[in-house]
Structure formats: structure tokens, C-alpha cells
Amino acid sequence: MASSIRVRATSNGDITEVQTLIQHPMDTGLVKNPAGELIPAHYIQQLKFECNGKDVFVADWGTAVSKDPYVKFSFKGAKKGDELKISWTDNKGASDTTTAKIA
Predict the structure, then answer these.
(1) Of 5, 24, 33, 98, which sits with the fewest C-beta atoms within 10 Å of its C-beta?
(2) Structure confidence at residue 2 (pLDDT)
(3) 79 within 8 A of 99, measured Cβ to Cβ
(4) Collapsing DSSP states into helix, strand and coil, what is residue 41?
(5) pLDDT 10s per residue in the chain (103 long)?
(6) What CA–CA distances, in Å, run from 36 to 30, 39, 62?
(7) CATH level 3 topology of 5-102
(8) Is 78 helix (H, G, I), strand (E, B) or coil?
């Protein structure tokens, strides 16, 4: 099964820029289906980025994040070839993890 996470990380000098797209429904639990029944909440609770085993970005999310979230940030302290690990867990216990080399 393909990962739900697509990531691109590039280093320019001391700054590493990370762009990530995650496929997830991010249902709030407030929307009804065509039959008029509420669609249960289903959203990412925690998103984590680690570089060489050290946390560089951790987000605790709720229902206010849109479907298929896009995250872009930058950090210092990495170099080209370092490994970046991205993982998420959601409110139903599902999770996904992927790794990428910083280019």
C-alpha cells in the first residue's frame, strides 16, 4: 500500500525547507451524508517530523484542519543527505510513516 504522505525536503545552506501533502479525510463529525446521518469524526491527532532521530516539528491537531492537509515549514541544523521521518496518528488509531532524504 502506498504511503498517504508525500514529502519534499531541500537544504539551502543552514536552512532546510519541508513541504508535505497528506491524504486524509479530516472529517469533523459535524457533516451529514446524503442520507442525513452524521459522518463520524476522523482526523489526524498528531503529526511529527524527525530529523536524525530528533523532533523538528510536532503538531497536535483537532477537527479544524482541512482535508488532505499541506504543511510547509523550515528548520535549521540539517544537511543534504540527512534522513527526515514523517509520521501521523489519527483519532481512530490509524497511522502512517514515511522517510525522505534531504536533497
Answers:
(1) 33
(2) 85
(3) no
(4) coil
(5) 689 999 999 999 999 999 999 999 999 999 999 999 999 999 999 999 999 989 999 999 999 999 999 999 999 999 999 999 999 999 999 999 999 999 9
(6) 11, 9, 24
(7) Immunoglobulin-like (2.60.40)
(8) coil
At 19 the three-state DSSP class reads strand
- Residue keyed to cell 489526524: 44
In single-letter form, the type of residue at position 65 comes to V
**DSSP label of 29:** S
Give Cβ neighbours of residue 28 (< 8 Å, ≥ 6 apart). Answer: 41, 43, 63, 64
Residues 6+ apart with CB under 8 A from 48: 55, 57, 58, 59, 86, 87, 88
Buried b (16+ CB within 10 A) or exposed e, 3-22: ebbebebebeeeebebebeb
